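[09:14] KT: can someone run the structure on this one? pasting the chain below
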Amino acid sequence: MARVMVPVQPYSEGPNLASSLRVSAPDLALFLQELMAPALLTPAMRDQMLEPVVEIDERISWASGIGIDHSDGVTTYWHWGSNPGFQSLMVIDPQTGNGLVVLTNTGGMADFVSDTLGGYNLAKEVAREAMGINGAWDLRRH
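[09:31] RB: done, structure tokens below
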């Protein structure tokens, strides 16, 4: 398979809603902790963030920026990011309080739309293994 190189815009060109959030794994973990045990958010605000807004199917729905996955009898909350050369996934199981953040600097859109184990698909496999849940954690196919 031929490798397609996609130019990545330099950070100095300003914000881009799809890719300008720059955060560390520990910072994302703090965000997940805040969703599970609000200290800065009010519980009502947190509940609103996790309330289903769009139902994709019986397994996946979407809240205000947070995905909701019902897999293996477990409800998890998740969010992903996928830009050329960078993929991420964060998942939390509110029943156990377990959460996971995976950041990669590998892969590209070919990994996102295929079944290869680069970037995003690898992040999902790590999450499935670590959490013991066969979560879909995407909107493509499951």
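[09:33] KT: thanks! The chain has four helices and six strands.
[09:34] RB: yep, looked fine to me
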